[in-house]
Amino acid sequence: MHNLWTPSHPKHLSPVTEHHLVAAELLPSFFPLFMTAAGTIQPAKVLVLGAGVAGLQAIATAKRLGAKVSAYDVRPASADEVKSMGAAFITLDLDALEGSGGYAREMTEDRAARQRELLTPYISASDVVITTAAVPGRAAPLLVTKEMVSTMRPGSVVVDLASETGGNVEGSQPGEIVAMGDVRIWGAKDTASSMPVHASQLYSMNVLALSALLISEDQVTVNLEDEILDGCAIVVNGDVRNQVAREALGAN
User: Fold this and answer.
1) Collapsing DSSP states into helix, strand and coil, what is residue 176?
2) How far apart are CA 188 and CA 15, in angstroms?
3) Which among 187, 113, 107, 198 has a CA at the least distance from the CA of 148?
4) Same domain, yes or no: 138 and 83
5) Do 148 and 226 sit in the same domain of this protein?
6) Which DSSP symbol is given to 209?
7) Under a CB-based contact definition with an 8 Å cutoff, are residues 192 and 199 in contact?
8) Residues sharing a CB contact under 8 Å with residue 162, sequence separation 6 or more, in sequence order
9) Using an 8 Å Cβ cutoff, are 32 and 62 in contact?
10) What is the Cα 213 distance to its own chain's centre?
11) CATH number of the domain where residue 71 is located
12) What count of Cα atoms within 13 Å lies in the side-chain half-sphere of residue 83?
């Protein structure tokens, strides 16, 4: 039984919304609660990992479809945003990993392993898991292993929005649906191209805003005291300032 709330052409919607409707289409059950003369159908349980822009949109879309939604993020500050969208925020007994610019920072392998261990019961209880976690300049963190996927019920669906940058889910492949036992894993690929008009519009607005910081009275000035410009600078006067670039070059 396909979800009756899924449109036949989701690519006319926003890229983020589209991917969560893909999960609804792949799930062999309804998202919303149904009370009928034949009995009550419980709502689908959706777990969102990563509560940034994409994660909050995932929560909103799943809620509109009638699912019961919970979410987790390594940044405790995101709890209020998650709750404001009508989802339950999962709190694990782990230290916060708040990074710069509202993003999460990279975690140690020991912490990552402990996080996966604590998340497993929540994943087991979910019909749909949507992962959106990213760390700027790094490979996507591994949030869900094959062993964790194997604990999910037959017919469950996993959507990995970070598939192109290494994947939050072990075994996910960009642009493919991978069967792992009785669970299907959908890997996102080139999401911006599914909505080229708005992707170009948003990119051009970023370029324009950055140019406004760089140009004053027809002169280009790199003011490294500006937090945004400092964060964008890779090399200045021969000095490699960006930490990721320094590591790639083997610099101290």
Assistant:
1) coil
2) 10
3) 113
4) yes
5) no
6) H
7) yes
8) 131, 132, 133, 134, 140, 168, 188
9) no
10) 29
11) 3.40.50.720
12) 8
pTM score, whole prediction: 0.80
Looking at this protein, which amino acid is placed at residue 85?
A: M
Same domain (yes/no): 104, 202 = no
Query: Tell me: the pLDDT tens digits for 74-126?
Result: 988 899 999 999 999 999 988 776 554 545 556 788 999 999 999 999 999 99
- Whether residue 157 sits in one domain with residue 59: yes
- State the DSSP code for 102: G
* 149-184 residue pLDDT tens: 999 999 999 999 999 999 999 999 999 999 999 999
| 184 shares a domain with 205 | no
Q: Please check whether residues 111 and 217 belong to one and the same domain.
A: no
Sequence-ordered list of residues with C-beta below 8 angstroms from that of 251, at least 6 positions apart, any chain: 240
**Residues paired with residue 47 on neighbouring β-strands, in sequence order:** 70, 129
Query: SS3 for 27?
Result: coil
Number of domains the chain contains: 2
Query: Does residue 153 sit in the same domain as residue 186?
Result: yes
Q: How far apart are CA 118 and CA 111, in angstroms?
A: 11
The answer to whether 233 and 224 are in contact (CB under 8 A) is yes
Most confident of 112-121, 132-141, 239-248: 112-121
Residues 183 and 109 in one domain: yes
Structural domain containing residue 220: 196-249
* Parallel/antiparallel/unpaired status of strands 235-236 and 219-220: unpaired
